[in-house]
TrEMBL record:
Start and end residues of each stretch annotated as Disordered: 99-124, 283-305
Domain spans labelled Trafficking protein particle complex subunit: 358-637
InterPro entries attached to this UniProt entry: Gryzun (IPR012880), TPC11 (IPR021773)
Transmembrane segments: none
Gryzun putative trafficking through Golgi domain sequence ranges: 659-1256
Name listed for the protein in its UniProt record: Uncharacterized protein
Length: 1259
């Protein structure tokens, strides 16, 4: 908007004048003086004899007030940019003590001199005529630039924005000296009344405010006296109480800030009232609906005064300006829109001829109105309406210029288009719309918050169709549009004929007049400046275009619009190239070339244009590397390419340039693929692949002669090097050629040695024709012999060009981007077929050479058992066609903490040290065995015996038997034969256990009986404590999958605690004749345990840890079993839960004995034991039952001395035979009041209710 008068388009703020402080430095505010001097020279002058205030307080206060000047801030969010005052913004100016106001009325026109003596006498007799005087800039004043039919001049806005203040703040010193206060107060009253009178006589309604700054004084500050003095001054000067303020002495910076905020807040209603009064005055004039009379009528016969509609445009414009001064944006918008519509009505713009200078004045006013309307719409958030207003003004301007003006097919219209787009961009920037405007200082660095356009308002009806251009886009869009119109403007300017480019001083007047009707120079230079003659200076189109493009580029880049950023960068570079700034053009294009998105998008015309521009810049900068990079892509179809002659226009340098390209980042003129014939190969067998090199060069380009092609593999394959064979005639015309190359080992004649990056293997070398013509494909059949097994894939293919001027390498790493084909020679010529639909053609799995040594395990069993000593026979058969050197390895896989171990049978019993076998730390010595077999002749056989031991826990192991051998004829290729088998180890038996009490037949110790053995001298101490008998009942179940023979079951005492000894009897089997146990069959047996304390007084509980040892062997009926397996006895140990005997607790044992004399009579004995050191008393009560009759005490009391026992007998006679009877004897320890449970012994049972006794049936 720089081309427009600033006051026409600037956002209006209330004008505040500071009088009495130091004046501002001279600026351009008086620039309107030379344009119209009457505004400053003949107006009333406000003058005061008081010197301006000085000192730190006055300076700081002045600085605080000037900092609140909001004329340079964004007009949308001004509150966020200031930290002090939060009201409406002001324009503040400090002028010292004197100030000149513009005149309100113009001088009357001069009278014409009398033409006769009679006329002179008549003038003397009559009074001079009276004139209706108006403003110096009114269309009614003859001396006005708008007289007689002009609409408006920017000077009117200048008058109210820069010259006539809404309020003046007068600063005066306030004396605190009591001796001088009365005199100084009187001086203040006189000065204030004088200034008020001068402002009142000026005719302006400027609000008058007085601020008194207290002077420094040694006398104390008396608040009441000061208030009285202020009241006296206010009354004497007729000031409002809010219009006179006092700043106390020694005010701090914080107090000055607060005083500044209070002062500006107090001014707000005053200035709003001032501009409201001006609005009322303008509205009254508009409502008269009449054209005011001019000071003097127009003198020309063709001139006419401004129409009523023209006056309405003036009034509406003024009302809008005053509303904007008040910051009432909605009201200002209504007035501006009304003025705009009236201006484009039938009675204003349509009545102005295109040749009339008033036509351009009307255009200027219409632009100013449109700018103000758009600004108000953006202020209120109506972004879509703002865009529509911009488009509407452009459309209406085009229409009226085509109809009434000089048309739009000229540089003047394009200059306006560029300026109109630039104005929109500047308005968006000033609006500070979040995400759209560029000056986002509060959100700096947050790139994700930038928007491309403002989304539609929520109030938009869904049925309303939205066009993309109706949404407000970011300012980069408008800046780029301005640049495009500036380019069109330059194109049209270059079409100006040479005769119209001659300066006016060198042309006759007739030609000057004709040019004025031909070219539109509205806010644009004359033709001789727009398109100057050679050697002359004129308008710099390129600078205007570059400024707009650079600004647009910043906005597009900020929003990550990459493709548009690249396009604008190309246009900037082309503009630099146009003016010869090759360095700037090169620095613009060079960083973008490697990552240009057009390359992946396939926008080839743009790529060609970009590459050609970069090549020109590289040639100018003598950048050989960039020239080679551009030429390799061969984009320009109108250029005869020869990659070998790319640097012919550049000087030869001492250091030969070297360029490395990655095919995935460029559009390479050559591409290469490598395809394996098969997805799998074998070590030592030929493996075939095809290397196809295809040229995509222009048809007119020269062949590309490669020096070398390198193919590198990942994995076990050796790299390949194809070198150019200079001894063959190059074929560059055949569309496709297939050749088979022989690969050899590298020799010392080779210049370099290529190594594989993964395994360091040296490359195989081949020679062939590497000259590739345009659109030609050359296929090379390559055969190599793998020496190692593993997965392999093509890592990269590198195409090399080496000559005396440069070195160029193009690496291809992504070989899956292109389709894979297999080329072959047929009877109809060379044909290709598609491969790779079911496999990756760039990968090949190299399998080991198929072994012909067979490994067998003839005696392997399906299941093995824990603790079993398993002997495994391994047979090795050499079925190779020749002798082989063989070594065998055995690995046992399973749980790493397993105690199982594998070893050779003949090494059993030998100590195996960790270093004696080649085992890994993970495997351990016990899980690995190795043996060298030596050379085995053809069809020979070896037998090895393995031993698997220490299988203590059930588990599943995997046994791997490996034979590593080399044929005698080929010691470089190891061959591996592997045989895997699973070993399932399970537990053969499981058992359940019951501990049952028994009655010991031996007598207990007696205090009244002396043992004769006590007096004997015994070297070995004999147990003399209490004795108890127990029975361990075991039920062993077979979990084996086959019948097993149990040789023996033995109860083993592992440990015994509590100072006791234990004797364990032999097994008593329920069925002693059943030695064989079948799967899931039960074997029940029992063991008698006799436990005796060593010391009689030891009553600690006794803990027994026992185990059950089962000795068994297999039945030798299995075909796979050997006689050794069936004869080997295996011992399986089953753990038994720990058993604790409470020796010190009293108990009751029941034993039953059938009577021999009377059938059905049972003698039931209850034995009460007191192993403690207490005298115990037991109450006995036998319950009656309908199932039997008993003889014996119904109730009884038994007293037991310490370490004694007593037996109570009952005779039972059952009512029926062949059933279980359940006598109930209740035994209660009277001392502890504890009921003792009766425990059964032999041939008895028990349940929850008590013991059960079997009564035999009658014979």
């Amino acid at each position: 908007m720089d081309a427009y008068p600033e006051d026409y388009v600037v956002h209006n703020l209330p004008f505040i004048l500071l009088s009495g402080l130091e004046a501002d430095a001279p600026d351009d505010a008086g620039s309107s003086g030379p344009e119209y001097p009457l505004l400053l020279e003949k107006g009333p002058r406000i003058y005061s004899d008081f010197p301006p205030l000085s000192g730190p307080t006055a300076e700081e206060l002045r600085r605080n007030l000037l900092e609140e000047d909001a004329s340079g801030a964004s007009w949308d969010n001004r509150e966020s940019t200031r930290t002090r005052y939060s009201g409406i913004g002001y324009k503040i100016k400090s002028v010292g003590r004197s100030y000149r106001l513009p005149p309100r009325k113009a001088d009357p026109p001069p009278l014409s001199p009398p033409t006769s003596p009679t006329g002179e006498q008549q003038n003397d007799l009559h009074t001079a005529p009276s004139f209706v005087l108006h403003s110096p800039i009114s269309p009614l004043t003859p001396s006005s630039p708008t007289f007689p039919d002009g609409l408006l001049t920017p000077l009117w806005v200048t008058k109210h924005q820069n010259l006539v203040p809404a309020a003046v703040i007068n600063f005066f010193p306030f004396c605190l000296d009591p001796n001088m206060s009365s005199l100084r107060d009187n001086q203040l009253k006189i000065e204030i009344n004088g200034l008020k009178k001068e402002w009142s006589d000026s005719g302006y309604k400027t609000r008058f405010v007085v601020v008194l700054l207290s002077e420094e004084s040694t006398v104390g500050y008396d608040k009441e006296e000061t208030e009285e003095r202020i009241t006296s001054i206010r009354r004497a000067t007729s000031l409002d109480p809010k219009s006179i303020l006092l700043l106390p002495p020694d005010a701090t910076s914080a107090e000055l800030d607060e005083f500044t905020r209070s002062l500006l807040t107090m001014l707000q209603p005053l200035v709003v009232e001032y501009y409201r009064d001006l609005s009322k005055h303008a509205r009254r004039k508009r409502n008269r609906s009449a054209v005011p009379p001019p000071t003097a009528p127009p003198t020309s016969g063709t001139s006419q005064t401004l129409s009523l509609q023209g006056w309405n445009v003036r009034y509406e414009f003024k009302l809008g300006i005053f509303a904007e001064f008040r910051q009432e944006i909605d009201a200002a918008l209504r007035n501006y829109e009304s003025a705009y519509e009236t201006l484009f009505g039938q009675d204003v713009f349509e009545n102005i001829a295109g040749w009339n200078p008033r036509f351009n004045d009307a255009r200027l006013l219409s632009d100013a109105l449109a700018i103000r309307i758009i600004r108000c719409l953006l202020w209120t958030g109506q972004t879509r309406t703002a865009v529509r207003s911009w488009v509407n003004h452009r459309t209406r301007s085009r229409d009226i210029i085509n109809r009434r003006g000089k048309g739009t097919r000229n540089y003047g219209w394009e200059a306006w288009e560029a300026r109109w787009s630039m104005a929109m961009a500047q308005l968006i920037r000033q609006a500070n719309i979040p995400g759209i405007s560029g000056n986002r200082s509060s959100q700096e660095g947050d790139e994700d918050e930038y928007l491309i356009f403002v989304p539609p308002e929520k109030t938009t009806p869904p049925s309303e169709a939205l066009c993309p251009w109706e949404l407000l886009h970011h300012e980069g869009y408008w800046l780029y549009r301005s640049a495009k119109h500036a380019m069109t403007r330059r194109t049209l300017a270059q079409q100006i004929p040479d005769e119209d480019r001659i300066p006016p001083g060198q042309l006759p007047a007739s030609q000057i007049a004709s040019k004025s009707y031909m070219y539109d120079t509205y806010l644009a230079p004359e033709p001789h400046i727009e398109a100057p003659q050679p050697g002359s200076t004129g308008f710099d189109h390129s600078q205007q275009i570059l400024n707009a493009l650079r600004a647009a580029l910043e906005q597009f880049a900020r929003r990550k619009q990459i493709r548009k950023t690249e396009s604008i960068s190309l246009e900037i570079a082309e503009e630099y190239m146009r003016v010869g700034s090759w360095v700037e053009a090169y620095e613009t294009l060079r960083p973008l070339w490697p990552t240009l998105t057009w390359r992946q998008a396939g926008w080839w015309p743009l790529m060609e244009k970009f590459g050609w521009a970069l090549r020109e810049c590289a040639l100018q900068m003598q950048d050989s590397e960039t020239t080679l990079r551009v030429d390799w892509e061969l984009m320009n179809r109108g250029w005869h390419y020869s990659i070998h002659q790319s640097l012919r226009d550049l000087p030869i340098t001492e250091l030969k340039p070297s360029v490395a390209l990655k095919a995935e980042d460029v559009i390479s003129s050559l591409t290469a693929t490598f395809v394996f014939e098969k997805s799998e190969g074998n070590v030592g067998e030929p493996l075939m692949g095809q290397l196809a090199i295809t040229s995509f060069g222009q048809k007119s380009s020269d062949p590309i002669r490669l020096s070398e092609v390198k193919v590198v593999f990942e994995g076990c394959l050796r790299p390949l090097r194809l070198q150019s064979d200079q001894n063959v005639n190059a074929d560059t015309t055949t569309p496709c050629a297939i050749s088979s190359l022989t690969l050899r080992e590298p020799t010392s004649a080779d210049s370099t040695t290529l190594l594989s990056p993964s395994n360091g293997l040296t490359a195989l070398v081949g020679m062939g024709d590497l000259a590739i013509g345009p659109a030609q494909t050359k296929v090379f059949n390559l055969t190599s012999v793998p020496r190692e097994a593993g997965d392999s894939r093509v890592a990269s293919i590198t195409l090399l060009i080496e000559n005396e001027r440069f070195d160029l390498a193009c690496g291809i790493t992504d070989l899956t981007a292109c389709d894979s084909f297999w080329w072959q020679q047929t009877t109809n010529g060379i044909a290709r077929r598609r491969v790779g639909k079911d496999r990756d053609t760039c990968r090949c799995k190299i399998m080991p050479k198929p072994p012909k040594i067979r490994i067998t395990t003839p005696n392997i069993r399906a299941t093995y058992y824990t603790n079993e000593r398993a002997v495994i026979e391994v047979g090795i058969h050499n079925e190779e066609d020749e002798a082989a050197d063989v070594s065998a390895e055995v690995r046992l896989f399973g749980h790493p903490d397993s105690a199982a171990q594998i070893l050779w049978l003949d090494e059993e019993g030998e100590a195996v040290t960790p270093g004696s076998q080649d085992s890994s730390p993970i495997e351990g010595v016990r899980h690995f065995a190795k043996r060298s077999i030596g050379v085995m002749d053809r069809s020979s056989r070896q037998q090895l015996m393995l031993l698997l031991t220490d299988t203590l826990e059930p588990s599943t192991h995997e046994l791997q038997i490996t034979c590593v051998y080399n044929l005698v004829s080929d010691f470089q290729t190891p061959i591996i034969a592997t045989h895997r088998l699973a070993l399932s180890i399970i537990r053969p038996f499981e058992a359940n256990y019951d501990f049952l009490p028994r009655l010991h037949p031996g007598p207990w110790p007696d205090f009244f009986t002396m043992d004769d053995n006590l007096v004997q001298d015994e070297t070995t101490p004999k147990p003399r404590g209490l004795q108890q008998r127990w029975c361990l009942n075991s039920k062993v179940v077979s979990f084996a999958l086959e019948p097993l023979v149990i040789e023996k079951i033995k109860l083993v005492l592992l440990s015994l605690g509590g100072g006791a000894v234990c004797n364990i009897g032999s097994e008593v089997v329920d069925n002693p004749h059943a030695l064989e146990i079948r799967p899931e069959e039960l074997r029940e047996s029992s063991f008698i345990l006799e436990v005796q304390k060593l010391v009689l007084g030891d009553r600690r509980p006794t803990a027994l840890n026992l185990a059950l040892e089962i000795q068994w062997h297999r039945i030798g009926t299995d075909a796979a079993a050997s006689s050794a397996d069936s004869a080997t006895v295996t011992t399986t140990t089953l753990p038994i839960p720990r058993f604790v005997m409470p020796v010190g607790e009293p108990r009751v044992l029941a034993s039953a004995l059938a009577s021999e004399a009377i059938s059905g009579l049972i003698h039931l004995d209850y034995t009460l034991e007191n192993p403690s050191m207490h005298f115990l008393t037991f109450n006995l009560a036998m319950e009656a039952s309908e199932h039997f009759a008993f003889s014996g005490p119904k109730t009884a009391v038994v007293q037991l001395v310490p370490l004694s026992r007593h037996t109570v007998r009952y005779n039972l006679l059952a009512s029926k035979r062949g059933l279980w009877i359940q006598p109930q004897l209740n035994v209660v320890d009277t001392y502890f009041n504890k009921a003792l449970r009766v425990q059964p012994t032999e041939e008895m049972r028990s349940d929850k209710k008590g013991i059960l006794i079997w009564v035999d049936a009658d014979d």
